[in-house]
Amino acid sequence: MPELPELVVMQEVLTDRVVDRTIVAVNVLHPGILKTVDPALESLVGKSFRTISRRAKHLIFTAADDLHLVVHLMVTGRLILCQSDRRATKATGCLITFDDGEDLRIVENTNIHQVRVHVVRDPSHVETVDKAGVEPLSSDFTSDYLAQHARGRRRQLKKLLTDQTIIAGIGTAYADEILFDAKLSPIRYGPTLDEGEVRRLYDSIGSVLRWATDEVRSGAGGATLTPHKREFLHIYKKTELPCPRCGTKIAEIRYALTKTNYCPSCQTKGKSIRDRRAWLEE
Ligand SMILES: [Zn+2]
User: What is the pTM of this model?
Assistant: First the structure.
């Protein structure tokens, strides 16, 4: 799933390649991908996207002040730019055709279609945009804000970091990287953090997201929208590989559909979190 670093780079690439091109056709091939009916998707025809922005895990294509296409790629959605005469595959959910013979396509290579597309007069009409928490790379995100939310409610740090209503744009991959960087256990409860630990977590959120955005940007080379390889990550999906800091084998916790990676030496005082019930339901 694309998270903040990937989406920042997608926004940059799309701004470069899609803005100001006239839309001549729009087509939906996966019924259900479009979550709104008014304004109609067809109202984009004849217009062009003036800006492309990002809020939380949404990309917002703004055609006019009161016309926005809001896309959430969820877990498996991708955006591709290709020649309009290329045949749409079964994976193609939505096509936006420009007057110069190129399409922007939303594709999803799974049977379960989760991508969400909205056409709205105001992006805040999309509930998950409206309820999105603070952007972690904005000046509104302060260590006081983090402390207040970490201490305000008894919840584990991974859940705190991935709660989109508190901090926007962090998913399971970057939450694992941030907690590794901060040397904190994913199952620590927020209220147990002392002032220094909150500060460390705050600093890691900023530094990991900035570093990852630079890595994704240099991997993308300004030209691609395909899922970026995340080989640069230290810990996420590196189960059993040596921790880059101390050499201990990286461990994993599975819970429901998510996996969490951590280093038992760097993050949990040498203890393995074997019991997945360690993830307590809230
Ligand atoms: Zn380690």
Answer: 0.93
